[in-house]
Amino acid sequence: MSFISRNAIRAVARSSRSRAFATAQSNTYLAEQEALQHHAADTTDLWRKISYFVCAPAVATCVAWVYNAEVEHAAHINHLKAENDGHLPEIPAYEYMNRRGKPFPWGMNSLFFNPHSNKDMIAE
After folding, report:
1. Cα–Cα distance between 65 and 59 in angstroms, integer?
2. Among 7-11, 44-48, 93-97, 102-106, whose mean pLDDT is lowest?
3. How far apart are the first and last CA of the chain?
4. H helices within the chain, ranges in order?
5. Alpha carbons 18 and 103: distance in angstroms, whole number
6. What span, in angstroms and rounded, lies between the C-alpha atoms of 17 and 5?
7. Whole-angstrom Cα distance, residue 86 to residue 81?
8. I want to staple 113 with a disulfide (CB 3.0 to 4.6 A). Which of 9, 24, 28, 109 is the partner?
9. How many CB atoms lie within 10 A of CB 52?
10. d(CA 124, CA 121)
11. What are the DSSP calls for 37-58, one per residue?
């Protein structure tokens, strides 16, 4: 049997089959897809509203609270400096603070040493 005749027989056999089951199944599939898209749109809208009306005000409230706390902290530091001729008062030398059994590989100060806020351990 030649290639052309074999394909012709297959095409006739395919076209004569009933497609009622596939059509009913595809209608169900399309309905499910439409319901899924509707649900996705509703869920997206819900989370967009949560983001705008809950998260954004919460972040703004936290920013305002931290800003006020930092302003109070800066005012307190400036007050301490004004009382002590422009310098912060000496930190008490408690024996449990800044203990070093041996120096770090880079020196006595920590890796995140800041001369404005940390005690300089090299000076001791």
Report:
1. 10
2. 7-11
3. 102
4. 3-16, 20-50, 56-83
5. 86
6. 19
7. 4
8. 109
9. 10
10. 6
11. HHHHHHHHHHHHHHIIIIIHHH
pTM over 0.70: no
- What is the mean predicted confidence (pLDDT) over 41-45? 96
d(CA 95, CA 109): 17
Q: CA–CA separation, 46 vs 56, rounded Å? A: 15
Tokens of 50: 């949560």
Longest pairwise C-alpha distance within the chain: 109
HSE on the CB side for 95, CA within 13 Å?
Answer: 0
3 state SS of 107: strand
Structure tokens at 88: 């912060």
pLDDT band at 17, cuts 50/70/90? low
